[in-house]
Structure formats: structure tokens, C-alpha cells
Amino acid sequence: MSNGAWIDGNGMDGYRHCLEKEFSSIYVFNLRGNQRTSGELSRKEGGKIFGSGSRTPISITLLVKKPNHQEKATIHYHDIGDYLSRDEKLDIVKKMKSVSDTEMNWQTLSPNEHNDWINHRNDKFGEFVPLAPEKKFDTETQAVFTVYSLGLNSNRDAWVYNFSREKLQVNMRRTIDFYNNQVATYKQNIQSEEIKKIEKFIDMDSANIAWSSSLIPKVQRGISVKYEGEKIFSSIYRPFYSANLYMGEHFIHRRGQFDQLFPTTDTENLVISVSGMGASKDFSTIITNKIPDLQLMFNGQCFPLYWYEEVNAEKTGMADMFDAASEPESEHYARRDAISDFALNQARKLYGSKTTKEDIFYYVYGFLHNTDYRIEFAADLKKMLPRIPFVGDSMVFWKYAKAGRELAALHLHYEDYAHEAGVTVNINNAVQDNFDITKMRFPSKDDKSCIIYNPYITITDIPAEAYEYIVNGRSAIEWIMESYQIKTHKESGIVNDPNDWAREHNKPRYILDLLLSVIAISLKTIQIVKGLPKVEMQNK
To answer: How many H helices and E strands in the chain?
Structure first.
């Protein structure tokens, strides 16, 4: 019995291949229980075999090796099934005493060329045009985009993100001072020939800082850090959750390509963030005009409309390689298109010479919402970055481009979508100015038609359909409920209070209006998605 993630894990294909070569027979009893999923997927996974202490899927595996066996193993597989509780699963295990039990109903698996044992990829997916180039900034790419980036990975979220700009500044000044003290302490001790581990000479207490593999070497090199107050950017941390982000040097673990996608605090850009490979949640996407966190989508990969190049960056040798007609965005940066010339040429052959790269960008965003596409290629979208077809019907292309623009307008301007959603807001007149929240909740787990906003405000008559808009594993409404609550970071004691955002922006109703807006946006999104034209998936 072991962690069962290896059965279908994208990074475990080599392991599965080795098992197939080394053994003559393999029996895999998949007990499921993966609680790193959410929503309907989590309910399907069912109870956790080892109770509350376990979040991983569990499997029972028997490996049989016959000395003279030369062929690949015969793989026998049994899935315990959906929606079973822990007790129901244990009863089934107890009942199935042997692999020879006839009720096991073993399924014989046939691995494909990718070493997928279950949830095989669809060969048709490989015929579509990839979004991601094989190499970044490749002018000759036959992908839709010339560049993409992993979402921002700070490795110290509690310090570099905050609803309050003022508190973010205080937190960062404090941790930078602490870091510089550790640099000074280490310098005082490096005279000793006996020093082998830096951890012996710096304070590793995570109450003060989150050390990482990118930060500790800087201490060893004696690099001191200055606080850079001008590098506080707008970011989107989770779906429909804006935050202040400190982007100063050294304190972001993995910056991705964001120094070129959002080089300044007032840079304008659009980014389509999609679920990354190996996602435990169904594929989804969201667009943003702010720096996206790595977990905005699960291990999110980000595809921009533009990228920016320093005007005088002679060392790159790339100043004239992209869009010679582009005008500099400022005296320091020139804006370059991130949609490839290949994609533009393909689109113009199919949809007319007036097709623009911006049209293609919105077509991509619209098409990634196609429900049939997400279902048919669900296995591929968990194991590979998206690929899309250029549809053969020009009318269909323009409908998707139009839908993409409409969805983008909703998802970018989510804070001020004023349309009615048919809900009722009940406010106690005696305290009608109290819009602060601690944590929103449902009255019961079975009643989502009502949200208790705070002790004085409730929202009722919420349509069930509003919860159908799922992004990164849960409904947009539940992301608001999860994100907009007062949280205290366990190690550092740093408090992140969404009420601070409302106060600093002088918008006391901000969180309530945001919730109402997202309910309306969810309904409109579902309406647009249901209206998308059917597409016969075809190759490029």
C-alpha cells in the first residue's frame, strides 16, 4: 500500500515504464482519496483511507517477477469507484481478500507511447497548434505565442503580498533588515576554516523570514539588500483577489518572465493564465492585467499579449527582431507582440487579411472556455500545455474571438461589474455602515442560496447556476469567500486583512460590492460559455 499518485502522475511516466519492463505481472488496486483536488473531483475521490492525516490517493500494488519472463508486464487494474466513504472503501478491501477474487473484475491496461496507463492522451490533440513555443522569444516558432511564463513564485507569500500597502511596506522593511543582519553575522564568522553549514551561523527561525534555495546563497555571497518602495506592483493572487506585491530584487524566488511582461508598475499588458501540467483540478483559465501568482491557476502558465524590451538593451541583440513597427511604450521600453507571425499568417489565410494578433489572443481565450474541448481533451490538458485548432469556419472563429473579448471584459473588470444578479441584500439598518468582514460563510453546507457576509448583512436568493462558473477548482463565488477573510500567517504572525484594502481605497462597501459583482459575472460567464458554437475538432 502506497501513495497512488504515481498511477497517473505526469512526472511518473518513467517510473511506470520501468515497472512495465522489470516485472511480468502488475496488479494495481486504486483506492482513490486524493484530497488535493476540490469541488466535484474531490467528492468523486471519496474518503481518505488513512483518515484526516492523509491527503494523497492510496493504492495497493502487487508486483510479480518471473525469472525467465522477457516481455513487458501484463498490467491488471481495478478502480474502487466514485463517491465512496472511507468506511465503504475499507469494507470493499476487507471483502476482496485476494487478487484472484472474481469480483475484482481486473481491467487489463495497455500503456501508450507516453507511458499513460489510465486517462490516455488523445492523438488528435497533438495535431492542434501549441500555445507555447519550444524556446522563449523564438521568432520562427510554429506556436501561437513567442513567449510564456510560469506564474510568479515568491516562496514567501506572507511577506511579499498584502491587502494593505502600508503593512506590506512595514513587513518588507522588517524582513530586509533581518536578512541584512544575517549577512553581517555570517561575514563575521567566515574567517573560520571549520564553517561547513551556513545554517549554523544564521537564524533559521521562519517567524522572521522564509529562507529558500535562491536566498541563502546570497547570504553566502555577502549580498546586502535595499528596500525598494517603488517596486510595489498590482497583482492577482487568486481568482478575483487583487493584492499589493513587493517585487524588489532578491525576495522573489522565481520571477519567471515578469520583468519583461510587467517591467514597471504602470505597464499595460494582458495575460492568459492556464492550469499547469500535472494539475489535480480540471483545466481552467483566467485573464488578468496584473502580475499573476503561480497558484492563480494550479501551477499556472501565463501567455501574454505583449512583452517589453529595454530600448537600449544592446546586449540582447534582439532590438529589431520583433515588430519593427512597434512604437516605444516609454523612453525606456518598447512593446513587442507576443502572438507569433506564424499564428497571424495561419489566421489570415483562414479568416481574412484584416485579422490581427489581438483577434487571435481573444480567440484563444474564448476557445479555452469551450466545454466540449475541455471534456474531450481533459487527460491531455492535465499532462501538456494547451494546443488549439484554428477552426475551418471563419464565422466560428469570429464568434469565439467576440466571446473571448466579452469574457475578458468581465474577468478584467470584475471589481465594478454593476449588473444585477437577482439577489437580495439584507442589511440591518441599525448598523448599515458596518461592511467589515471576518469570514463569510453559508448557513449550512447544503444551502448556497444564502451567504452570511457578517453578523449584520446576508445575501439571499443566489441562483444555483452562479456556482457553475468554476475557475481553478472552485466556483468564483467561493474564491471570494475563501480569499476575503482575515488570515494570520502561522509562522510569522503577519496579519492579512481584506478590510485594509477597502479602507486604503476609501471604499467601505468594496468587499460586499465585489461579492455581488462576482455573482453577476459568474452568471454572465455561464451564459456566454453556453452560447459558444459547437466545433468539430480538426487538425491544423
So the answer is: 15, 24
Q: Which residues contact 367 (CB under 8 A, 6 or more apart)?
A: 373, 388, 400, 404, 535
Place of cell 553575522: 185
- The pLDDT tens digits of the residues spanning 250-277 come to 999 999 999 999 999 999 999 999 999 8
Look up residue 189 and give its three cell numbers: 564568522
DSSP β-bridge partners for residue 475: 470
Q: What is the pLDDT of residues 167-188, one digit of tens each?
A: 999 999 999 999 999 999 888 7
Q: Which phi and psi (to 5°) does residue 44 adopt?
A: -65, -35
Q: 225 near 179, Cβ under 8 Å?
A: yes
3-state secondary structure of 233: strand
The two beta strands, 129-130 and 161-162, are: unpaired
Q: What is the 3-state secondary structure (H, E, C) of 285-353?
A: EEEECCEEECCCCCCCEEEECEEEEECCCHHHCCCCCCCCCCCECCCCEEEEECECHHHHHHHHHHHCC
Q: Among 132, 180, 114, 158, which residue's Cα sits nearest to residue 379?
A: 114
What the block records as the C-alpha cell of 321 is 527582431
pLDDT at residue 481 greater than cutoff 60: yes
* Nearest of 261, 42, 71, 39 to residue 152 by alpha carbon: 261
Q: From CA 39, how far away is CA 335, in angstroms rounded?
A: 40
d(CA 308, CA 42): 40
The model's pLDDT over 37-70, given as tens digits with 9 standing for 90+, comes to 766 677 788 888 887 667 788 899 999 998 888 8
388 with 365: CB under 8 angstroms? no
What span, in angstroms and rounded, lies between the C-alpha atoms of 296 and 152? 9
Q: What is the pTM of this model?
A: 0.86
Contacts of 53 (CB under 8 A, 6+ apart): none
Beta-sheet strands, E only, within 44-111: 58-64, 74-79, 107-109
